[in-house]
Specification:
280 residues; alpha/beta; Ribosomal Protein S5, domain 2; seven-stranded mixed β-sheet; two-stranded antiparallel ribbon; 8 helices; 11 strands
């Protein structure tokens, strides 16, 4: 049986002379550029990642001029990594951050004011950390006046407190600085061999305030092998009931954190305590 063959269609010479093939190639290039350009161009976003758990003892937090006691355990200052205001964040970096479950993308205006730079932000962060250390000293003195009236902390001043931590700023270390001072200055063994962390601002009255990046700090605490994490009760609406093996206690004051630390509690419990929105 004869089967007719259909010849291949050829581009007429006249059409070829119009630059049809060259236009097609240019179109493909333009489409490729349209798709690729957003990935390699700067975008107005900030990337937030979990940082580290920095141990307080024996090098980071030191006290002079006042009697201290041996530490049995460890406390950690938790940090997060935030891109600086002058850092160029490219589109592909945003895409990569979206893919990572522990990375957060947020508009730059949410984190930084319109007029700022790296130098200004570093200076502001250092200032806030210094203020948090001063508030921690005052709050600790008030707690000791109530819990250890026999101890004289008159010589505990800003000059007697030394914090060694580079390239880190902000007010969120206030609570852990306070607990670190309590551990060093109290004659009792409060840590009892445990690894604990805390994040939250501290006022001179001992009130614990909210901080940003609490979920990222939970990741940092878990990576540091922390067993117990104190957070501000004002951050309760930002965490879920599942904290992957951690014991998280939400507090409103330094005294609440002190009592929980002193009491020891149920060391086998894992989850969140102190957050009413989680029925805990």
């Amino acid at each position: 049986m004869h089967i007719p063959r259909i010849p291949l269609l050829r581009v007429p010479r006249a059409l070829a002379r119009t630059g049809y093939r060259r236009t097609s190639r240019i179109t493909r290039i333009l489409i490729s550029l349209f798709l690729i350009a957003p990935l390699v161009l700067p975008v107005n976003f900030v990337l937030i990642n979990p940082g580290e758990g920095n141990p307080l003892f024996p090098k980071m937090l030191k006290v002079n001029s006042v009697k201290t006691y041996p530490v049995d355990g460890q406390m950690f200052l938790l940090s997060i990594w935030v891109t600086n205001p002058q850092t160029l964040v490219l589109g592909f970096q945003v895409l990569h951050c979206w893919i990572k479950p522990t990375c957060v993308v947020t508009p730059r205006s949410v984190i930084y004011p319109k007029v700022t730079d790296d130098k200004a932000e570093l200076a502001e962060g250092a200032k806030e950390m210094k203020q948090s250390q001063n508030s921690a000293i005052v709050a600790t003195k008030k707690l000791f006046a109530k819990k250890y009236p026999e101890l004289n902390l008159a010589e505990l001043t800003d000059a007697s407190l030394k914090v060694s931590l580079k390239n880190t700023g902000g007010p969120s270390g206030g609570l852990i600085f306070s607990l670190g001072l309590v551990e060093l200055l109290a004659p009792e063994n409060l840590l009892q061999g445990r690894k604990i962390a805390a994040t939250g601002t501290i006022s001179k009255s001992g009130a614990v305030g909210a901080i940003g990046g609490v979920q990222e700090k939970i990741v940092a605490a878990r990576a540091a092998g922390v067993e117990l994490l104190f957070i501000s009760r004002k951050n309760c609406d930002e965490i879920s009931g599942e904290v992957d093996g951690l014991k998280v206690i939400a507090v409103s004051t330094l005294e609440e954190a002190y009592l929980a630390l002193k009491g020891g509690g149920n060391s086998d419990f894992r989850g969140v305590q102190g957050c009413t929105n989680l029925s805990a």
